[in-house]
């Protein structure tokens, strides 16, 4: 199992609090489930040394590298290059291929590709570091400001929604300074936050439509998957934040979301597994917000929960992901 060096879980978690275990939740869940299925699991923490990674892979000679990496050298845009190394070493690995990661990790590039294929996305503008921050006239408020490539809602808060140029510049500068990345400002779409999981390489399976809900939120509170909403347990309890199977959807809406998810998956050349994040407006319009290859697969996160809703137990889900990795060949993506 490949994970960020800082997320290598402790061998013994007895006596540790939930807060102490939380950072390693996904890694611990994956290790436990794989060992329950009699897989032998070794963990490799990766930071900035490809030579050490190569030596350990050659030493362990694993059948599969279960890829939970989120970056390389603390940069989220580099995980696709590590996967390229795995391909060059002829090492089977789980999750998405390098080209799919490159296209989907860049939120602006994804939107450009979607626009070309006439798939609805929010209007947007990109603000690189060191350039003048000037909003294009066509880009209307309110806007949501975030990093162009950092995942997991890092850097997103209620303050990320801005209504004037001064606040926009302030938030763009925050992304530049706090995360060190290019910022993207995109049209804020009012509506329901919808997730659709997809499994597969060539033959695809979509999972039930899932939804992020704020059960205790006041009417005026924008429903945004902020960093706090995703990772702060107390914040989640305060606002009743949870994910569950989307209700009150028309059959044609579910079908459209499923078909659209498959289409996006194929357009971006994704493999393994991914989650599509949509906004469904009150008028029934569907906007793609992000395509997320290799989403969080902790036991109680939305991807695994949506799989469970159609009878795919957690260990079986991980085995499916492994089986997909064994059937994938880089040459087939040419």
CATH H-level superfamily of the largest domain: ATP-grasp fold, B domain
Secondary-structure content class: alpha+beta
> What is the CATH first-level class name of the largest domain?
Alpha Beta
Characterize the largest beta sheet: strand count, sense, and whether it forms a barrel: 6 strands, antiparallel
Could you please describe the fold and organization of this structure?
- This protein is an alpha+beta fold.
- The protein has three domains: about 90 residues, no CATH class; about 60 residues, Dna Ligase, domain 1; about 140 residues, ATP-grasp fold, B domain (D-amino Acid Aminotransferase, Chain A, domain 1), CATH 3.30.470.20.
- The chain has twelve helices and twelve strands.
- The strands form three sheets. Strands 7, 8, 9, 10, 11 and 12 form a six-stranded antiparallel sheet that branches.
- The mean pLDDT is about 90.
Features:
334 residues; alpha+beta; Dna Ligase, domain 1; four-stranded antiparallel beta sheet
Task: Summarize the model shown.
The protein is of the alpha+beta class and 334 residues long.
Q: What is the secondary structure topology, with strand pairs?
A:
Blueprint: E1 2-4, H1 18-21, H2 25-36, E2 44-46, H3 50-60, H4 79-88, H5 98-105, H6 107-116, E3 124-127, E4 143-147, E5 161-162, H7 165-179, E6 183-187, E7 192-200, E8 204-206, E9 210-214, H8 227-231, H9 233-239, E10 241-245, H10 251-267, E11 273-280, E12 286-293, H11 302-308, H12 314-327
Parallel strand pairs: 1-2
Antiparallel strand pairs: 3-6, 4-5, 4-6, 7-8, 7-9, 7-11, 9-10, 11-12
């Amino acid at each position: 199992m490949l994970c960020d060096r800082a997320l290598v879980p402790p061998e013994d978690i007895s006596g540790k609090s939930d807060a102490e275990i939380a950072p390693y939740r996904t890694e611990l869940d994956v290790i436990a489930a794989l060992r329950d299925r009699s897989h032998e699991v070794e963990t490799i923490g990766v930071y900035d040394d490809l030579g050490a990674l190569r030596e350990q892979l050659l030493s362990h000679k694993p059948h599969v590298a279960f890829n939970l990496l989120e970056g390389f050298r603390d940069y989220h845009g580099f995980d696709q290059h590590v996967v390229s190394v795995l391909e060059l070493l002829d090492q089977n690995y789980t999750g998405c291929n390098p080209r799919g990661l490159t296209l989907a990790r860049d939120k602006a590039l994804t939107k450009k590709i979607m626009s070309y294929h006439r798939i609805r996305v929010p209007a947007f503008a990109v603000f690189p570091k060191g350039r003048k921050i000037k909003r294009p006239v066509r880009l209307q408020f309110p806007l949501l400001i975030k990093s162009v490539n950092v995942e997991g809602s890092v850097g997103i808060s209620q303050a990320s929604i801005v209504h004037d140029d001064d606040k926009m510049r302030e938030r763009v500068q925050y992304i530049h300074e706090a995360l060190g990345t290019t910022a993207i400002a995109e049209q804020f779409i009012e509506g329901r936050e919808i997730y659709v999981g997809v499994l597969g390489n060539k033959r695809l399976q979509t999972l039930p439509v899932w939804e992020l809900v704020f059960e205790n939120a006041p009417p005026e509170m924008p429903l945004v998957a902020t960093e706090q909403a995703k990772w702060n347990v107390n914040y989640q309890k305060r606002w009743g934040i949870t994910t569950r199977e989307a209700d009150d959807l028309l059959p044609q809406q579910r079908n459209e979301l499923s078909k659209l998810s498959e289409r996006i998956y194929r357009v971006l050349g994704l493999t393994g597994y991914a989650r599509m994040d949509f906004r469904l407006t009150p008028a029934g319009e569907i906007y793609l917000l992000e395509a997320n290859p290799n989403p969080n697969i902790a036991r109680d996160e939305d991807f695994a929960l949506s799989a469970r809703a159609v009878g795919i137990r957690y260990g079986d889900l991980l085995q499916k992901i492994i089986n997909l990795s064994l059937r994938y060949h880089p040459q087939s993506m040419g």
